[in-house]
Amino acid sequence: MLLVRLNPTRLILACILIGALVAIIGSLGGSGSGGALLLSLVFWVSVVEGCVALVAGAELSNAKWILPLKRGLLSVYPLLLFFAFLFLLIWPQMDLYSWTKEPGLWLNKGFFVTRSFVLLLLAFFVARMFARESLAGGSKKNLFAVIYLLVFVTSQSLIAFDWIMSLEQPWFSTLFGGYFFVEAFYAAIAISIIIYIFYARKAAGSEETLRDAAKMLFGFSLLWAGLFYAQYLVIWYGHLPEETGYLIKRIFPPYAFISKVILALLFILPFIGLLSRKLKTVPVVTGVLSLCVLVGIFLERFLFIVPVVEMNIAIIVVEFLALAILFFATIGSEDLLLPALPDGGAVWRPAKSSGMPKLHN
Amino acid sequence: MSPDGIRSSHSSTPGSGAPGSGSQVEVDVLAAMRKPGALYWFLLLVCGSLFMVGMALWAYQMTRGMGVAGITHPVGWGVYITNFVFWVGIAHSGTLISAVLFLFRAGFRRSFNRSAEAMTVFAVMTAGLFPLIHLGRSWYFFWLFPYPTQRLLWTNFKSPLMWDVFAVSTYFTVSAVFFFIGMVPDLAIVKRFSSGVRKWFYSALSLGWKGSQVQWKHYNQLYMFLASFATPLVVSVHSVVSWDFAMSIVPGWHTTIFAPYFVAGAIFSGTAMVITLVVPMRRILKLERYITIDHFESIAKILLFTSLIVTYAYIVEYGLAFYSGSVYEIGIFKYRTFGHYRFYYYGMLLFNALVPMTLFVRSLRRNLPYLFILSILVNIGMYLERFVIIVSSLAKEYSPYAWGTYKPTMVEVGITLGSFGFFFTMFLLFTKLLPVLSVTEIKEESH
């Protein structure tokens, strides 16, 4: 799974290379490059912010299952800094938002880019402080966890309202922000299972970590379905033309099939697949279902954008692959920009004597 | 304790002890059930009287007609519906504390789960009164249920009010079963220490519980099943209650965030009510050893967490009303801020969003008098929230021609106070008739 091992220098180089690639694609002026960049950011920012938020939430609720996965999840936080600067590349492509023709107090180019950039930077700095404090077992970890979660919720909500919802302005849904940050948690749980399978299986020692993570994935599949239904039903029942237009564009052809696939990937498959107690500890099943969830979230974000913005599939694939490699390479380089563990890494790595880790202090 | 095995067979077996002997926890919990003192009788008299006054006013309303209530065009839903939503909300913490925290293996639930479950059942019973009171001709309540009739009439399944009937009755059934099942081993303990009629009563309720290995095995499976079954119900009930409003196209009501916002608000108010009830109960019944400050700190964190979700919903609703550019949406939120009900709105913001922020301070989370006062303020705030949502949106809907205001009459206020009387009467009876703590779980924790 580990393709590239990164050190801080390599990480910076990788980020510059990918940034340059995205900038070149954008400057060539190819149709759909703006939409592809928006999709990449909307997906990967959620995943990365969600990974740190999952640890913060677990830390505050004294959850033990996260311990073997904690370092892997926290290791991706440096990418938030990269995403903050990558987001600036959207500036020349802002015409994908119709409101740029008639800017208002809230929706105008300058304020839009500034607030998003500042929030991403803030998320990075707070995530950094939290990650270091949490791994060092510092006394301020709970304080930073709370601050991070507040920034995370604000950031994800504004990503939902600003980046996506405003594509269809004046359509609005008050649930959209909450829907996004719950999905970010959902994605992070799927990532935690992948981390367990490929990076932390031996360190975890027992199947209980996987079982607990799978239970969380199961629970979030229900929560996701509840939120999806709460939004869908209110719009459908209200039957107001200014609201239903959003749904009609997405659940009827040409996107009818993809919307059904998303429903299957994000609810039906994880729900049915993880009902069984035994299957929750089968790595192949949980791994595949985690991938289903991640693909489902990516497709759903694609579906949010594609009816109103021109997309180029080739650019989407290139950018997605580049960012996916960067993401997993960052997880694989677990010491990157993170402090050494106080116990010498027993939580993360197998103990030398018995091959079994100490999960709980 | 884990969700996979609530209490192992190695834990106490209530049926096996000799009569009159028992562990300290048994002695302490049973002591709470002894003959009540003067204060108890006084409180019961006050609450019972309040309930009777409420019943008398309801009878008065039925004989004189709905004109004695303040609800009329355009505000057809007033404090009766506010009370309904408020009491269904209060009912939420029981299942949250019992089922959800059980699934999350949060140990502090043991101090609160029995009281919270009892509160749930009584709160749903109280809530169930209000649709009947609001009906006017309450004796036709059975029209709400689908049944074969000569006139081939059928209930309107498209109406969210109909969904309420099913959601609330399902929630009540499951909550009552969950409450009862969780109590069976403890009832066997009470039986062991009882005599005469009381022994017969608890013997019947404990269903022949002996505490054998087979019984524990089945009990654990059933408890786990009920906890898993009850958890989605917590979400579904208040989602459906929120849809009573959100399915309409009334400004301020028709909004997608309502379901999770109402669920969080319900857990918020229910948790506050648990604190309101358990703080004095712990002191009066001398249960300080079992309900510790640490436990209160944990439940205060839930209060803070749900307060933050509710605050988030307030901000998003307000912000997006202005984002939308819709004159109706903007109009209703301006009306809430500057209109007739503005002080209620400010009260709601103060008690639900601002004051609970003080719980970020650890010493305040551990200060019981402060928590007690805060929990009462939160309940006032949540009542105001429901009132503001319901009344302000109806008072100022689309057409200025149809605008109007609403003021509850003394009959409505009296019936509302009567509902509080009913709820507290039931809770007082519970504290003397049933074990207020889960003895077997506490014993298992200490083993």
Would you mind describing this structure in some detail?
The complex is a heterodimer of chains A (361) and B (447). By secondary structure, chain A is mainly alpha-helical. Chain A has a domain of 225 residues. Helices cover 69% and strands 0% of the residues of chain A. Chain A has 12 helices and no strands. In chain A, α8 runs antiparallel to α10. Chain A is globular, with a radius of gyration of 20 Å. The C terminus of chain A is likely disordered. By secondary structure, chain B is mainly alpha-helical. Chain B has one domain. At the A-B interface, α6, α7 and α8 of A face α8, α9 and α10 of B.
Task: Kindly summarize this structure in a few lines.
The complex is a heterodimer of chains A (361) and B (447). Chain A is mainly alpha-helical.
Give the helix level of chain A as a range of percent: 55-70%
Radius of gyration of chain A: 20 Å
Strand content of chain A: under 5%
Please report the number of helical segments of chain B: 16
Span between N and C termini of chain A? 29 Å
Class from secondary-structure proportions of chain A: mainly alpha
Oligomer class: heterodimer
Instruction: Describe the largest sheet of chain B.
Output: none
Topology order of chain A in helix (H) and strand (E) letters: HHHHHHHHHHHH
Order of helices and strands of chain B: HHHHHHHHHHHHHHHH
Q: Residue share in helices of chain B?
A: 55-70%
Instruction: Please state the overall shape of chain A, judged from the principal axes of the Cα atoms.
Output: globular
Number of strands of chain B: 0
**Total tally of structural domains of chain B:** 1
Task: Summarize the topology.
The complex is a heterodimer of chains A (361) and B (447).
Chain A: H1 8-27, H2 33-60, H3 67-74, H4 79-88, H5 109-135, H6 141-164, H7 176-204, H8 208-238, H9 241-251, H10 256-273, H11 283-305, H12 313-332
Helix pairs in contact in A: 1-12, 2-4, 2-5, 2-6, 2-7, 2-11, 2-12, 3-7, 4-5, 5-6, 6-7, 7-8, 7-11, 8-10, 10-11
Chain B: H1 24-31, H2 38-64, H3 79-90, H4 92-103, H5 109-135, H6 160-192, H7 196-205, H8 213-246, H9 258-284, H10 293-324, H11 327-338, H12 342-354, H13 362-365, H14 368-395, H15 410-433, H16 439-446
Helix pairs in contact in B: 2-15, 3-5, 3-9, 3-14, 4-5, 4-8, 4-9, 5-6, 5-9, 5-15, 6-7, 6-8, 8-9, 9-10, 9-14, 11-12, 12-14
